[in-house]
Write a structure and sequence with these properties.
rod-shaped, 193 residues, single chain
């Protein structure tokens, strides 16, 4: 019966705190000896002072209760979780940094391209402005030419006047010839007479 209590006590001791171990030893469990070096630094060959034997335990021994929740220390495997979170955050920081530098390079190259296209646009705009000024000057010159040129109606009017003048000159020429022929005839008669 005592061996079963001791076994129960040992089973409880393995999972309990040092305070519980001390309390079970004082309850009547014999001290255990280690064959290697003891806590005082003596080797196993030297005689170990043994405590006087304890009086026999009463028939009714106090029941050792399992330790409460506050006494249990659970070994938590936080290292894996902590390492995972640390690795994730480190990877996030590295990826964020690399992404930021990539975006910064892309932004600078895009702004350089945009600046070049703006300069090219400015040059083409100045060329277009020159062409527009030239076109306006040519339009003014064409308007002056149109005002100074004769129209089709003016041309037909001048042509009809020219025909009249030519007809008049032709009629005058014929009259002069007729008069000249008449004068020659008179002169010829006068010279015969």
């Amino acid at each position: 019966m005592t061996s079963s209590i001791r076994l129960r006590a040992i089973g409880v001791i393995r999972g309990s705190s040092p305070r519980a171990i001390h309390s079970t030893r004082s309850a009547g469990a014999p001290p255990t000896t280690n064959n290697a070096v003891t806590s005082a630094g003596r080797s196993a060959a030297e005689p170990v002072p043994v405590a006087p034997p304890t009086p026999p335990a009463p028939l009714v021994q106090p029941v050792v209760q399992s330790p409460t929740v506050h006494n249990i220390r659970v070994k938590r495997t936080i290292g894996g979780l902590r390492g995972g979170i640390t690795g994730f955050l480190l990877g996030l920081a590295v990826a964020g940094g690399l992404g930021y530098t990539y975006l910064l390079q892309e932004y600078s190259s895009a702004s350089a391209l945009l600046l070049a296209s703006v300069e090219e646009l400015e040059g083409s705009t100045s060329k277009v402005a020159k062409y527009v000024r030239r076109i306006e000057e040519l339009e003014r010159a064409v308007d002056k030419q149109r005002k100074s040129q004769s129209t089709q109606q003016d041309h037909s009017a001048l042509r009809s006047e020219l025909h009249k003048v030519y007809a008049q000159l032709n009629a005058d020429n014929l009259d002069l010839r007729a008069k000249l022929v008449e004068l020659e005839g008179q002169l010829a008669r006068a010279s015969k007479a």
